[in-house]
């Protein structure tokens, strides 16, 4: 065999905006060994939530864990507190939460798809995808008042109501967005270059996915039917037409197609929930302090997000633990790289849509 | 080839997707979560906004005569609107659809000093309040 060469990938790399470091040992372009380091952006958010912030403020703090799945983190925390304190949230608030969470999923998936196109060398498609992502950001701003850091959900309900004007505008813009997303899906599905670049690369077999506990779109692309939206009833997904999307191949192309299909399903769900929006309050007053333990599983755009919290009738929580989807997907990345060509590494890493600000917190 | 030519000709006369930002203003949409505006004449100094603010962007300092002063740092604020919801006096704190002004050296409040002053003056104020009770007993 040839010489062994060590190639560091990250923590700063053109294909990878996240501060993760892979050190590859290669032999003639083939990777034989890899080391992963994820601890570059530790901000001590969990500790701050347990020492500095009151339990009513923690929702706003955990929203800052990650910019792309801000609502997922807030939802995770808020649902856990509500389960702990046995608060019954009004149905309208649940529907509004669902609306924002699905808009967030669309925007995150479009980002992942666009980024993947860029790494494949398809800059034009990247530009198109990001232009359409801008439409979702505008919708998010319309509903919540901000483009990414929503601060929408709070303990006991949501912070803002949906006015009639906003709803009308939302419907109009969503139709436009749906057309654009259909076009994008068509391009991602049928483009010859993309197929050549992505088919059969970075394959996760269903056994591997099950054994290494893969979550989110990568797991569903390998045929594993795991989705917290389907398994854990934190929001009324089944009432608004949720579909579990799985694919068999488990390669980069399949992961991208799962995201594209989920985007369309999310948009469909938003239309359905706007049609069936219940009347009523958006918030209930909260009394008392959290006591006991609770855990919640949320389907963030990248996969299953796990929140555990413990309170003992104090304003400040005893323990808050966040387990994020990217953390669950790192073992399989490591396994996948061994035996792979070095040239396929950027596309494979990006196909997992890693979020290191979540992972290191 | 023909399609490509037609498409590129069309693109020449299409409106660009980007905004010429510094030359074209980009107004905030309605419902934008903007700056917090405080009206002193309506305030009852209950300090609920201070208690509820997650980043601690609202602080009250206590003067010697017992009156309180409101301080707000728009550069620390996360614009979540919790203070507006917590305020019992409607119209005292409002979230307007305007962004915080760009930070210049003169405009940035000396926040470290204000925080220090807020804590120390609160301690002094609490001490002064306790004194008469101690005399009685």
3D structure, described in words:
The complex is a heterodimer of chains A (361) and B (137). By secondary structure, chain A is α+β, with helices and mostly antiparallel strands. Chain A has a single domain, classed as Cytochrome-c3 Hydrogenase, chain B (Orthogonal Bundle). Helices cover 49% and strands 14% of the residues of chain A. Chain A has 14 helices and eight strands. Chain B is 35% helix and 12% strand. In chain B, strands 1-4 form a two-stranded antiparallel ribbon. A two-stranded antiparallel ribbon of chain B has the order 2-3. Chain B has a domain at 35-100 and 115-127: Alpha-Beta Plaits (2-Layer Sandwich). By secondary structure, chain B is an alpha+beta fold. Chain A binds chain B through residues 53, 56-57, 60-61, 64, 131, 138, 141-146, 149, 151, 159-160, 166, and chain B through 17, 29, 31-33, 52, 54, 78-82, 85. Chain B: Residues 34-63, 68-98 form the 4Fe-4S ferredoxin-type domain. Chain B: Keywords: 4Fe-4S, Cell membrane, Iron, Iron-sulfur, Membrane, Metal-binding, NAD, Quinone, Repeat, Translocase, Ubiquinone.
What distinguishing features does this structure have?
heterodimer, A: alpha+beta, Cytochrome-c3 Hydrogenase, chain B, 3-stranded antiparallel beta sheet, B: 137 residues, alpha+beta, Alpha-Beta Plaits, two-stranded antiparallel ribbon, two-stranded antiparallel sheet, 4 helices, iron-sulfur (chain B), metal ion binding (chain B), oxidoreductase activity, acting on NAD(P)H (chain B)
Would you kindly provide a brief summary of this structure?
The complex is a heterodimer of chains A (361) and B (137). Chain A is of the alpha+beta class and 361 residues long.
